[in-house]
Hints:
2 copies of one chain form a homodimer.
Chain A: H1 12-21, E1 28-32, E2 45-46, E3 56-57, E4 61-64, E5 72-79, E6 93-97, E7 109-112, E8 116-119, E9 122-125, E10 135-136, E11 147-149, H2 157-165, E12 170-174, E13 178-184, E14 188-189, E15 200-201, H3 204-214, E16 218-225, H4 229-242, E17 245-249, H5 260-267, E18 269-272, E19 277-278, E20 284-288, E21 291-296, H6 300-318, E22 328-333, E23 344-354, E24 357-362, E25 379-383, E26 395-400
Parallel strand pairs in A: 5-6, 13-16, 13-17, 14-15, 17-21, 19-23, 22-24
Antiparallel strand pairs in A: 1-12, 2-11, 3-10, 4-6, 4-7, 5-9, 8-9, 18-20, 20-21, 22-26, 23-24, 23-25, 25-26
Amino acid sequence: MPVESPYPLVSIEHALHSILAHCPQFAVTRISLSESQNRVLAEDVLAPAPVPPFPAAAKDGYAVIAADRSRLRTVLGEQTAGQIGNLMVVPGSAVQIMTGAAIPAGADAVIMVEYTTQQGDSVEIETDVTVGDDIRPVGQDIEAGQKVLDKGAILGAAEIGLLAAVGLPTAPVFRQPRVAILSTGDELRDPGDELAPGQIYDSNRFSLAAAVTQAGGVAHPIGIALDSPESLKQALEHAIDTHDAVLTSGGVSMGKLDLLKPLLEAEGTVHFGRVIMKPGKPVTFATVQGKPIFSLPGFPVSALVSFELFVRPALRQMQGDFAWQRPRLQVALAHAISHDAHRTEYQRAMVYVKNGKFLARITGFQGSGRLLSLVGANALLELPPGEGQLPAGAQVTALLLQALGA
Amino acid sequence: MPVESPYPLVSIEHALHSILAHCPQFAVTRISLSESQNRVLAEDVLAPAPVPPFPAAAKDGYAVIAADRSRLRTVLGEQTAGQIGNLMVVPGSAVQIMTGAAIPAGADAVIMVEYTTQQGDSVEIETDVTVGDDIRPVGQDIEAGQKVLDKGAILGAAEIGLLAAVGLPTAPVFRQPRVAILSTGDELRDPGDELAPGQIYDSNRFSLAAAVTQAGGVAHPIGIALDSPESLKQALEHAIDTHDAVLTSGGVSMGKLDLLKPLLEAEGTVHFGRVIMKPGKPVTFATVQGKPIFSLPGFPVSALVSFELFVRPALRQMQGDFAWQRPRLQVALAHAISHDAHRTEYQRAMVYVKNGKFLARITGFQGSGRLLSLVGANALLELPPGEGQLPAGAQVTALLLQALGA
Lengths: 406, 406
């Protein structure tokens, strides 16, 4: 009898569904605005008060009565931002006013300083205005009680500014998953060490840590486990005790020292152990003590592609991001490409715009070990299985990994 | 005589050119891979050694001689990843081998375990192979001496993995600019405080800090300066002494308390004090002790739009990013829009793809104080000055601020 994996090959959809079902949204926590960048808002935010909270000058100039047609008006004084005087504008008078200052009583318009000439204690007005000119009415930007941000919003510069503008010093956000990252394999050494024959450098620990951070998780690379049941068991149990999720790479194919699946079976539940895809076929998902364990293949590209398809959505969902999918786009192939006959294949590509059309060009040799195929890639092409080549011009689906160059 | 600004209105191109000329690239520093995410690579990186460094098994299975046609072969032993034995494959024999292990002497192909059946000390081979099958030759992924990353590359997951894979524990990157962020204005209070009449919350300090961080700088919000020459002078001098650049907001229009320009004139050189654009006309750029001072308008949208156009390019250039421009894209307006007759106007918009075409829809009322116009915006539309409306379908240029939804 030939050797076969005991794990059925499941579809990508099945695998993702299984993962998302075991990775529920985390609890809500409240953090200061200065820590909130890129976090996911956990509640709708309503403005407690209007912005601006008082009628304010939109320009530097003079607060006047619009219907007043006097050419020369007595300047009663000045109103600067942040101060409230007791000046009262009457016909024939004006108050000098600065941008952002409250409109004094009696005034109903502001005349820009550019249209005035000061003459001693008076000001000459060189233009007509209508009621409300260059006044920002109460609530012009934000009305009291208005919803300003939706639950699920990602907090960037504008969103954080908005929270500050309505007076909120903290933001309700979902807690971030703390993710342990474990490389496995006797052949792995740390960059900077000398390599003995048969050894290679561990790169997954570093690339996956960056990928976890990019996905909004807190990455904790915890080292390299050797290919022994004891070393793996100890590393895994420690990782599970102190983290929300564990990400391993290596040790999941069919070799005698691929010890992860038996260990995960012993400690918890393996939900799937193989997926019909290329690269990433041996990707394995388990839960141990209710916590998700993602066991990715050891080849560097396989690890990052399966991270992208399975781990990133899980980490985004845990943080409360409803939009955990990457944007998908139909693109035309710039050249013919070979692809797998039996499995959906994810090839690394540069998607670009030419003459208003989206084109895609793959990033050279697509070997599972060749990290260079991900350098300069802004998309994964999702190529359904089939015989023969896909011709230039064929329409395929691209998963956008980052902003398009244009 | 009407009041006029003594500063000539300069073009956007002139302003940007002036800024970039005063913001040279920073020095190179070497940091650990785990700190290197999103940093800009300061040197080309060549691989010191090939990857893989030895001929390695691409699959779990048996190392054999391809020309050997024996159906049953004696298993001489096993070769696991990370170990070098002294096994020698001869005709009629095979060595069990694991993915990533070095190919033993004599063997020139690997047969996947799925095509074999173990029979006692022998293995039955059920398929033919040719020389090189499932062997990763030396340098398949990376050749010795090959350039793997270009100076200027932004270090993401794949790039960091690549540095690790070639054995480099550190990355040469450009130093990040440390940016002091100062809000100005007597009317400003911190979020969470009570507002007295005439006061508003400071939002720029928070939104600009997030924008600086997003642009790769190190943001240090240093507080609020009051509208007095002493308060401003003290805050500015302290900021300059301890930072690479200073970002202020407010105090640059034409009011009596717009004290920043006179102070910058006294302390250094003002390169421009007004730009023909909307919003952001009063944006001011100076150097003091050779350090760049960006004085942005106080309205929250004006501050973020002028940050985007002038400060982000400067911060990216300081960090060695040659591609400091945002991608520009021609898009069609989804609806008619009004725009400024005399100044290039930057309106906040959502650019999206429909039926393979790029369309843009603006994000509601475009007031300079309305941060909500930036929420959900992924682009700035660059609208050249002109009378009348731009009709639906008109082609305009969009500056892409983030990844497109599709």
